[in-house]
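Bench notes, afternoon.
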Amino acid sequence: MFKLRMPFWACVAGTLVIACERRNTAMPEHFGYGRPATEKEIAAKAIAIHPDGKGLPAGSGTVQDGALIYAAKCASCHGATGVEGPYNILVAPDTADARPFDQSPKRVKAIGNYWPYATTIFDYVRRAMPFNAPGSLSDNEVYSVTAWLLHANKLIGADAVINAKTLPGVVMPARKYYVTDSRKGGDGPYE
């Protein structure tokens, strides 16, 4: 039977010394796999949309087209009208008599009463939806679904056309609950 001849703490200390010595060795420049990304691959991922609409692509969508796309590609997860689920509720218009979220923790947070920017809807849908095929919607389809969601939340009319010019102009009721990041440096603030 093997018998440990050093106290446990000595073994731990020895292991730490070895780990520290290994940390001080230089990392190799290349691990022998992978390749640099192409400009086209980078452009395909660099699709962030700013709150002011910077980065929105060409194209447009309508509430009517969005209703058809939503029914075909979104309703199975979010319900026929955006409130049934089984996953996130998307439709909950803000009302004048609604209690603030900090006073009503069970209040449903959805696009119409919680999201601060309409452009975020476009950005999120384009990147992450539908769940079973993220990124598969065309820009026109994303504009249309965004239009339908804004209309369902009573934020735009049924005849509205959403595009790179009109989407940033949609005023979200929850915007007043958010504070602009006034720090300097990086990519912000987005004013």
